[in-house]
Structures are given as structure tokens and as C-alpha cells.
Amino acid sequence: MLMYLSCLGYSVISLCLFYAIYTDVKFRKIFNKIPLTIIFVSVLLILFTELKISYISVVVIFISGFLLSVYNFWGAGDAKFCFALSLSLPGEYIPTFLLFTSLAGGILAVIMLAIPRLKGKYKSVPYGIALSLGYMATMLVL
């Protein structure tokens, strides 16, 4: 029963990842319903499965995301999305998630600079893509 609940929960999170990529590319925004859905599913996974999260890591990600968004280094939607995703990962996979996300973000930034029609069009990187790809890569490692 726990396995089915985990599969269902991570399937919902996967759908949210693809929806976040779509909205971040199309509207340059991650709508609040995406991280809220992930937070809701994550809480259910924590309560009803054997998911062990690192509360310290989650709090550090929350505070870091808040500060980065207040000082306009990072979008608030990206900060909420990263926080929500960190709630659904075991604590020992948070560094892997952040590493893969950073790599995906760097590659995405280089691609945006390399493609001439994207070069001057956007002033920022749609980091929801990088967060989603980093999360997917982390889940493959799990």
C-alpha cells in the first residue's frame, strides 16, 4: 500500500514538474498552485510513507530562496518551487538535487546566450526548467 501511495505522489509531482516547465517558458512564471500541490503531496508522503526529509536543509532552502527573491537575484516562484521540491526529497539527496539544478541552470544559461534569437529576448533564465531537470535527474539517482 505504501508503495502505491509513493508512486501516486511522485506521479503527481512529475506532472507538476512538466506543468512548471510549460508555464515558466510560456509565461515566465510559476503559478502558486504548482508549489502548493507539491507541498500538499510532500506532506502526505512524509506522513504516510517512510520519506525522511532533512528539516534543516528545507529551512535553509526556504530562507535562502526568500532572501534571494527579496533582493531580486531569483524569482519568488522559483524560490517557492525549490522549497516545495526539497520537501519531497530525502535529506541525503538535497545536495545532489542542488548540484544537478545548478548544472542544468548553467547549461540553460549558455544555451540562451548561444542562440541568437534568445540572446536579447530575455533578461533572466527560466529557472523552473533547471529546477525540474535537477529534480528529475535526482530522482533517477534515487
TrEMBL record:
This is Prepilin type IV endopeptidase peptidase domain-containing protein. It is a multi-pass membrane protein. It comes from the Bacteria. It holds the Pfam family Peptidase_A24. One of its GO terms (molecular function) is aspartic-type endopeptidase activity. Keywords: Cell membrane, Membrane, Transmembrane, Transmembrane helix. GO terms for cellular component: plasma membrane. Residues 12-110 form the Prepilin type IV endopeptidase peptidase domain. The chain crosses the membrane at residues 30-48, 55-74, 94-115. PANTHER family: PREFLAGELLIN PEPTIDASE. It is found in: Cell membrane. InterPro entries: Preflagellin_Peptidase, Prepilin_IV_endopep_pep. The lineage of its organism: Bacteria, Pseudomonadati, Pseudomonadota, Gammaproteobacteria, Enterobacterales.
